[in-house]
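hey so i finaly got around to running the thing on Transport protein YwfM from Bacillus spizizenii. pasting the sequence first so u can double check i didnt mess up the copy paste, my clipboard has been acting weird all day
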Amino acid sequence: MQRYLGERSSHASCIGRHAIFISSGILSSTILFSDKSFLHSDNPDKKKNDKMTSASIYKGERQMKGNFYSLFVLIAAFFWGTTGTVQAMAPESSTPLAFGAFRLLIGGSAMLLAVWISRELHVKNWSWPLVLSAAVCMACYQPLFFTAVKETGIAVGTVIAIGSAPIIAGSMEWAVLKKRPRNSWWIATVLALAGCWLLFSDGSNVRIDVAGVLMALGAGASFAGYTLISKAMMKTQPPRATSAVVFMISAILLTPLLWQSDISWILTPRGLGTSLYIGLIATCAAYFLFAKGLTGVPASAAVTLSLAEPLTASLLGVFFIGEMLSLSSWLGIALMMLGLLVISAAPRKQKTAGAAHMS
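ok and heres what it spat out for the 3d tokens, dont ask me to read them lol
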């Protein structure tokens, strides 16, 4: 799966906020539980205050954990955002589709090896229809995205593919799981999508191709579907093992793409080095982090947070490749960072009433 672009500055504010939560939680817990006479007092007012203090501590700890899960997704998106820069370093004879197929093959193999070594690979009582559905979604994203970019241009193809995913994920989560997106999700998604459009349009000529637009929408739906299905599976299946099996099946599905082009470039030092980075870091490590984040973040919020990917790619292009951005592009980056900050800092509920399992 090849997607563009990420986020940095919100990490510092998130980490600082986490440190405050940790410090205040530890301090409050120490004060509360070190005084046994306070805990066992017969004074009703003190017991009431004790319950209120405990509840506030629990709420703070829960909020802190929710923000850390958001951070996992953001770091994953950062790794995804490096793929464009790294692919630019690959041999000229490499093709995006073959590069993507190798990415899934190397990443899936590494993920499967990791869970096998750690003895997490227990597939008993798994929901295999969901596993296969997630694998198909992941396998479909790659050709749909690259074909869309080829047909309708980088700006339109990327904005529609990446931008439609949060909207589709939020709508599907609302319709299927009966989880209405929170107000913070709407605000963050609008800000991030507006920023994404400003970042990619850049005042250049926009070329609209109906087939390309439909394929871009298909790519967005594929990523949204993968995220929602993965979220459902992780309620009953180990996240890392599930991701490993899904990616290995996806790699097998995309293997035929390798026989349609010359793949001798992977035997060169640059070809092997870039492929290993894309597979081990931008796929294996990134999707393990994404899976961990999904255990504590709603699917719709996770897809919105993944918009940090295009942000990362743009900033890497500026600072490491020497690309120049216009004022509108910088404004787009600012809006995307604001949207990501809103969604990552928003408080989350422990449970959502009426939520149903996908089956």
